[in-house]
Structure formats: C-alpha cells, structure tokens
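I have been asked to look over a protein record a colleague put together. This is what I was given:
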Amino acid sequence: MRIGAVATAVTLYSLSCPAQAEELPSFATDGQLTACTNPTLPPMTFVNGADTSAVAGFDIDVTRELARMWHLKPVITTMDFEGMFPSLASERCGIVISGVLRQTGREKNYDAVPYLDSSIVVIAKSGTPKIASLSDLAGQSVAVETGTSYEALIEKENKVLASQGRPAIQLQMYPSEDQVIQQVLIGRVHALISQDVEVFFRQKQLGGKVSIILTPDNPDFREFAIYLRKNAHDKALLQAAISDMKQRGLLEQLSHKWGISDQEAQVFSEQNAPSAFSVPVFVSALTSAAFLKGAALTLIVAVLSHLTAILISIPVALKLNGPRSPLQMFLTAYVGVFRGAPTLLQLLFIWNALPQFFPIFRESWFTPFLATWISLSINESAYQVEINRAALRAVDSGQLLAAEALGMKKSVIYRHVIFPQALRIALPPTINDFISLLKTTSLASVISLQELLAVTQIQVARTFQFTEYYSAALVWYLAMVFFFLYLQKRIERRFSWADRNEATANG
C-alpha cells in the first residue's frame, strides 16, 4: 500500500515538473528576472535617497512582485532611456519596465503588456493660459525626453499645421525627464510634454511653479507597458501575472503608495517648492558618499583607459614611423577610424551592437565599467598615437644612426636614447589629452556606469535641486582637473623643457 502511494506520488511529481518549468518565461535565466529601467522618472522608477543603488518606485515594486510570483531573484539594471531597448534586444535584460508607453510602433519589434493607465499632459509655467489642443502650440517651443514617443506626436502635429499654413511646433529634446522640466522652469521653452503620473508625484517639489495647460485624449498615450522580446508564450505568462496583480488589488495599492491614483489629481496645489540656492544641500551633495564614489570611479576609468591607450599607442606609433607596409596601412586606417567616429557612438556600439555579433558579450562579466574601459582605451589610443608619433619624429634621427654605429642594440637605443627625449616632448600634450579624457568619461552615463555625472543626474531627478547638485559636480570635476594641471606644471619644471628664451636668459 505504501509502495503504491509512493509510486503514485513520484509519478505525479514527475508529471508536474515539466508543467511547472513551462510556467516560467524564457527570459527567466539563472533563476533571475532582469529588468532594464531608467531611474529618472519618479514615481515610476528613481533613486530614492543618496545611495545610487537604492532604486525604488512603482515599476520597481511591480518587478519585485513578478519575481516573487515566479520564484526568481529580481535584478534591476539601470541605464539611459535610449539604451533600454537595445539592451533588451541583446538579451542583457528580460524585460523593460520604466514608465514606457504602449506604442504600436514599438510593438512591431517587441511584445508589450500594459499594466497601468496614464494620460499625456502638456505643462507650462504657472499663469500660462490653458489651450484647447496641441495645435495651439504652433510657433511655440516644446521640450520632450529623447527616445520617447512624444517626438513622433509633435512631428505628426507639425504635418497638420503645415497643411494649414501655420508655423510648426519647435521641438527640443533632452536626455532625461528632469532636464525637460528644467527647461520650462528656466523659461527656455514654452511647455513640455509628459505623463500625469510624474506630475502627480512632482507636486510637492514644483508646487506653484508650473501647471497643466492641456490633457489631450490620445489613444496612443493611455497605458504604460512592460516590454519583452517577441514570444507568445512569455507574453501570455506576463499578462496572466499582471491580471493576477490587478485582481488582488496590488496595482491599486501601489498607485496609492506612490501618489499616482485619481486622488492625487489636485496637481501643483502646494506652494512649498524651494527656489533659492540651498547651501546645506550643496554641502551635503559635495561631501556625500555617492559623489565621492562617482568621482573615484570617474578617475579610475580615466587613468586605466589612458594607461591602456599609451601601451597600445607606442608600438603603433613606432610602426607608423617605419617603412611602408600593409600593416602600416591598416594601422593608419585604425587611427583614422577611431579619431573620426564620435566617442559616444563607439561607446554605444561596443555596449549595444557588439553583443548582437558575439553573444558572449551578453554575459554578466561584460559590465558597463569594462565596456567603458575598452571603448575609451581604443578611442584614446588613436589620439595618443599621433602624440607619440610626432614626439618620436622630433628626436634627431642622427642620434639613432650614431648609436647604431657604436654597436648598440635597437632596444637599448630606444630605451636610453630615443624614448627619454620623446617623453619630454610627448608629456605635456599627453597630460592635456588625459584631462580631456577625464571629462569624456561622463559619456559613460548612457550605459549606466555610475560615474560622477550619472550620480548627479540621478540625484537631480530625485530632488529637482538642479543648481546645488550641478554645482557640487562642477566642484569635483574642477578639483580633479586642477590637480592634474598642477601636476603638469610640476613635471614641466622637473624636466626643464627646451625653451629658447629661458636658455638665452640662463646663458
């Protein structure tokens, strides 16, 4: 009897295991649910505090609940808005959830599962008269976030205006939502386009400064959706999970938690938004652990990238100064390509396009730090090659011939005769190039590297205290740059560069 019961139990277990396995979506790999998000859209997704790793919001709670339902570990990957869908396509994340609207254009390439209703709003400074339609913005400047569907909306409206012989809406695009709102606050644009959920959340920060002048009824801007790669089974599982969350009232609870329910429609009623520069906030940001870590990461990336670039550039410079050969032609093309292509494009190509050709770069070992290091090293080496090549050419070639006549080996000649003299010539432009690279590291914020600028933007998106946080970042950048400028002067003094005026005076 017992044996039969055990056999029955084993049979039922073996039959149930495959069914359970099928209930997990294919993007659930290694027991993890990886979600890509841009943490600059409160209350959907944002950094809730000084710690840049403490991501919170409506979307984050939804992701964690999905992971709980599927018995997975939630992994939140933060990045620039424009990098989310390329990362989804390259399988760096299983879903994109970041306050992204459901759009038919996006659904041509990805599946979308709606989870929250929303409305598009047009916001302007307080006192601006309300308008009846988007066409009333003809001739006015409007700001939107780069990569969003608002751009297509304005372009569509401009076609209608052109057919009526009216001036077009002047579109300005910015990389994050907080920068979009800032343009209205400083008066650079007449209005901005956003979603009502952010407006509800921002009321305490911006109370009295801006107001809603239009709420268009547009069917393409009514739902936030979770995006995933095309897979009917995965989409059905995600739809079932979202339906379950709705039936349990969890989504409604989250709406109340994050202040985006209908009860929050009294937008911008409070008048407590600070307007003056806050010294305590500036000092707090300047001395915060987040800014210190961001500055340290910026410096580490710059130093490692430049050292790697120097190591790459020395043999390349020697080869380019040598006799013509097929390898020299290849290296000349290498220098031309990486000097000619924008640094940001190279960074995005390595991070987003490389995994499409080589799946190994989709793995977790290929981090934003590593991608930035590789990209900046290759890019910087192309410039360093020209510095080193010019420095080597500036050394009198007769010294090489004389050393060879004395029977010295070529390696010894370069080590003791050529390189020391070339170093004196190359060092000042090399340090200048490093200072430029130090500032170029800010581009890495687009692939979610938490360097100094990325930390600043995250904190600005959370607090809307632009001046204080930008000023703190400026102080950090200037401190690093001035240190290396001082170092450059000390090195120049130490080596006593050939200066005709100084030589004449000393003579």
Observations:
- The domain at 120-220 is CATH 3.40.190.10 (D-Maltodextrin-Binding Protein; domain 2).
- The radius of gyration is 29 Å.
